[in-house]
Hints:
The chain is an all-alpha fold. It contains ten helices and no strands.
Amino acid sequence: MQAYQLFQHVKPSIVSDMFMWMRDTDRELYKTALGSLASNRKLRLTYLQKKPATEQIEWMHKTLKLKTSGMIAEHLLQVYFMKGQESLLVTFCDALEIPHDGKGQVENELPDTLDPDKLKAAVDALLEGNDPALVALYLHTFNLQTPDGWTGLTKTLADDERLTLS
């Protein structure tokens, strides 16, 4: 599934949380996201900035569902998970024994394969105390980090009923 397709299926509340986090913690990132999407749709940023935050977020979500927003969508998801959901990355990397910097930033190359038992343990650990739809979005985003995704993770996302985006 491509990044823009993730936005077609994800719960709106997760998208709202993501953009509110950006708006509250990094105004410049939020403005850049809004500006990139506006430019992509040939709109002026000032037009969108005059709208209330809830309308801006609804518009961004609607726009991120478009194929033409795919690269922006993937980048925003990566930034959100790297900075706003760091604990998910750390939990996942630790469970899979992927070396990282303590904040989830992988130190070397990502592995070519994911051990099935460790993957199951990682998914179970992520689902403990986290919204399953957020976990599913994270896992789908992680799976975008290689051209065809990881076979085991792709199968887990398709087969595990707990990992629905909506």
